[in-house]
Amino acid sequence: MKDRLRYVWLSLILIIIGSSIHLGFNPLSLIDDSNNGYIIMQELLAIDFSVADKVFYAVIETLEMATIGSSIGFALSIPAALLAARNLSPFFISIIFRSIVSILWSIPPLLYAILLVAIVGLGPTAGILAIALFVVGLSGKYLYEIYESQNPSAYDVMNVMGSTRLQKVKYVTLPEASPYMSNQYLFLLSYSVRESAILGLVGAGGIGFYIMQYLESLNYGKAALFILAILIITIGMDYLSSKLRNKMVH
Amino acid sequence: MIIFKAENLCLNLNGKDILKNVSLTVEKGNAITIMGPNGAGKTTLMRVILGILKPTTGKLYFFGGNGLNKEIKKVIGYIPQNLGLVNELNVMNNILIGALRRVPRWRSILGLYPNDIIDEANELLDVLKLSHLKNSKVKNLSGGEKQRVAIARVLLQKPLLILADEMTASLDLKASREIMDILMEMKDKMNLTLIMIHHNPDIAKMYSDTIFIMVDGRLEKVIEANAIDRDELVRLYER
Questions:
Q1: Which residues of A touch B97 (CB under 8 A)?
Q2: Does residue A18 form part of some domain?
Q3: Which of A163, A172, A179 is the closest to B86 by Cβ?
Q4: What predicted TM-score, i.e. pTM, was given to this entire model?
Q5: At A249, is the pLDDT very low, low, confident or very high (cuts 50, 70, 90)?
Q6: B29-65 b/e (C-beta count within 10 Å ≥ 16 → b)
């Protein structure tokens, strides 16, 4: 057993070294090119507050995108998860919905955003849809696992009575899952704020859009204020959502 | 009048014979208890009777008719070992689950129960001394209170036959007797028939007309509860 573990570690180290050589990865370039880093850091630290009004509107837009996107995604993930859960859905339907949810989950939001910008154009609509699609996958996967792990004896009682699927969902599945679902929604909200902040980099609205604009025009001081705003709202949302989730648990 | 009859029930799961030729008859108004060591097939037999598991061979007859159909399911109540309550719902909503098949489907989905059902539920809450807990979530109740909620739920179903799987397993003898007294009182009042599984020989003897001893998937013995003393009963089922 110990020998096997040693081989696993050795293989892992060899893979890391091999991959680094293959990619030409050189961490020392950080030191070699430290002068560039020093200049950029200096410019970033000279925060330019003249764009404060734009930051305010960008923050509002990012929060709105995250709230709308995660809410639509979460709402759609509930029926998707109910249809994907093996204990609630016929076998073939559950296979189909599990596959849909898995596919939606495996594509990163940034990739959705690139595709959606090409389809619906630049702006927050693409960002909202990108978040919603990813959230359906992420939340759908989590929820069907919750539904499947519920105490089977409440379902047995309903089955013995000859209850319908809809009755089981209303009286057992959703009430039993409700604490987890509220928790999940709060987590998704804070997660989506972080994601919306990045989506602007590909033109899908939100704060990232301005960061990209100012970085491309080498206005690092102005970009810095937007980066600082991202930091504050993501940490703030994370704190708020974990506080609320704790409150719900106790 | 025979309310339930099982004929030569066999169940084979993954190549293992769990039930071997089990036949039993239950008369209307009787309380019967199935006893036996762990792994004897008691819960499996109950799950076959309830239609949760399908027997490999054998037949079930309910109320003189054939098989378990939708109409018969309406009047069979079930209290599983861990009660099958919905912890996040309050006591009243848990009890109302019992009436799901008594109201039109759309009403049950919208949660719009007719007043007579609500009155019946309130009456049961009163009888079972649960009125003060009506709006409490089940997860906050004690073991004994949860048992009473499970009884209220099954009674609101207006069943003719109730199957209860070790429903007092988590209670001490005093609390078990309190719960069984309530169930027996309701049985007499509503002319119910009970098929129960118990591990406690005192409870089984005290609250059954007939005791079926199961060993290794077989029905070994049928005993009149008042014709056997406790020690002999223990000897029989611990054998």
A1: 157-158, 171
A2: no
A3: A172
A4: 0.80
A5: low
A6: ebbbbbbbeeebbbbbbbbbbbbbbebeebebbbbee
